[in-house]
Amino acid sequence: MRLGLAVNRVGLNRKANLAGIMEMAEEAAANRAQLVLFPEAAITGLVNNDDPEHDLSLGETTRGAAIRKLCQLSSRELIWIGIGFLERSRHALYDSAILINPRGSIVLKYRRVSPGWHGKEANPNFYRQGGDVPVAKTSFGRIGFLICGDLFDDRIVAGLRAKRPDLVLFPFARNFEDGRWDVERWEREEKWVYAERARAVGSYVAMVNYLSELDGAFGGAMIVSPKGDILYELVPGASGILFGEIKV
Predict the structure, then answer these.
(1) pTM value?
(2) Radius of gyration of the chain measured on its C-alpha atoms
(3) Helix, strand or coil for residue 223?
(4) Which of 20, 46, 65, 85 has the highest count of CB atoms within 10 angstroms of its CB?
């Protein structure tokens, strides 16, 4: 299975962000990727501020224009697309991810279970979490999602591992408190922590972070084996697509 992990650049212009995502998906397809994965909140960035009036406007619905365009692209390019986005459902917001098949259909939707994407005092009437870790049966095997802080919650990881996925897609958004794109710090302090947590899942894990001056998210991508070995990686600090092949 050939994967493309797309580190997209996120700015203030949502239309430009989506256009960049679509261009990268087309590039991944042109380079024979069978599945392309984008980061958490890839269309807007994780720029919510716990003000529902502001944050609900960041949300996309699964039937909205942006997701429809991605479904159409998936069908046109015959490529699987995984992407994280802020999902609006009526008057609630979720940190979600979907998997679109090459027929343009959403075959898996996951809502982040861990609450760290919003503040502790955020109104739970508006800011919500999922309660399950579903998997989808595909021609490649069983595929599931985790998003960002889910990977560091033993209960959530155990719940997904029990479903025996062959591949886990892990869109995330990570920055340092000083806002710097510090490659050396990532290499020194965090890269192997993420790889070790991926090992706990018991399957291949494909992880990708976006790049943005808005919140300091520093990019980077890795494909990690079930044993916790880093098979492929794209260092932080630049947009681009990491390609890699796995046997599932």
Answers:
(1) 0.98
(2) 16
(3) strand
(4) 85
